[in-house]
Amino acid sequence: MHPFTFLLLSSLPFLTSEAAGWCYNSEDAACGPSTWKVTHAKCGMKKQSPINIVTKKAKLDKSLSPIKFEGYDDADTNKNWIIRNNGHSVQVALSGDINIKGGDLPGTYKAIQFHYHWGTASDPGSEHTIDGEQYPMELHIVHQNEKYSSFSDAVSHPDGLAVLGFLFEESSEKNSKITNLINALKHIPDNGNITELERFPLERMIPDQEKLDKYYRYQGSLTTPDCNEAVIWTVFAEPIPISKNQLNAFSETLSFSNSKPMTLNFRPVQKLNGRTVYVSDSAVRLFNAAGLSVLIAVWTSILFN
């Protein structure tokens, strides 16, 4: 990268909720998640994220139609994105007309950034869990309600942000769709490092369209301080495959702000406190079909053995 280009990149603002004086337990337990509510009062409120999604208790909501993804197929490679080690995660600042709407969202939401949460070579690291299962990693694509002029304004409203959560599952084969992003990690090992990431269609990172109508929905918060309760969460049922080597690249390449390996950068699940988790009709059919398949297999085994 040309030095002048890097100087310009380093001056760019990153849309983030991050506040000073917090960390994860793997960095320093003295400023870990259990302490956040002391210095960041919103982290102690009643609609916090992430949560454990109990599939049997999720309430069917037929208004949860398939989300409409606009600009996710944009292949304009003339405008690179910026990828950064922000001391807590790896974050990509998005540009261009990339939006979501539908799916009972109260408006159109513009994609502003995405980031990840992960564990270690041997421990899972997703933030949301499903029926108590924690997945290897989780992707968050953050969208801002277009009716708000700034991120700081959006996070002061319960409909300010819409975050899409995607869980990862370990695969025997590498996910070639995120190779460029994984390769970029070696250029941002330390807090504050910034580099360019060649732009690609955002749809490349997520499951195919026909698998995106299966999801859970609830009202929650940002999962880092200031923990603003301004997020409409959509957590998809279909996991994204990733190889062991690709997964390990995050924890083995990146470092926290204190130079310790960036591992286990997730907030533990929070109490529901009476909130309802809703589920789309497609997700219900997905799990019912899975249950039926198991039942058929059991009866087949009994009848023919």
Describe this structure in words.
- With 305 residues, this protein is α+β, with helices and mostly antiparallel strands.
- The protein is globular and about 45 Å long.
- The chain is 18% helix and 25% strand.
- It has one domain: Carbonic Anhydrase II (Roll), CATH 3.10.200.
- A hairpin with a 2-residue loop joins strand 8 (129-130) and strand 9 (133-134).
- Strands 2, 3, 4, 5, 6, 7, 10, 11, 12, 13, 14, 15 and 16 form a 13-stranded mixed β-sheet that branches.
User: How many structural domains can be distinguished in the coordinates?
Assistant: 1
Secondary-structure element pattern, one letter each: HHEEEEEEEEEEHEHEEEEHEH
> What is the CATH architecture assignment?
Roll
> Regions with pLDDT < 50 over 5+ consecutive residues?
1-18
On the 0 to 100 scale, the average pLDDT is 90
Evaluate the radius of gyration: 19 Å
CATH class: Alpha Beta
Number of strands: 16
The computed structural class is alpha+beta
Fraction in beta strands:
25-35%
Tally of helical segments = 6
Largest sheet: 13 strands, mixed
Summarize the amount of helix as a percent range.
Answer: 10-25%
Distance between termini?
66 Å
General shape: globular
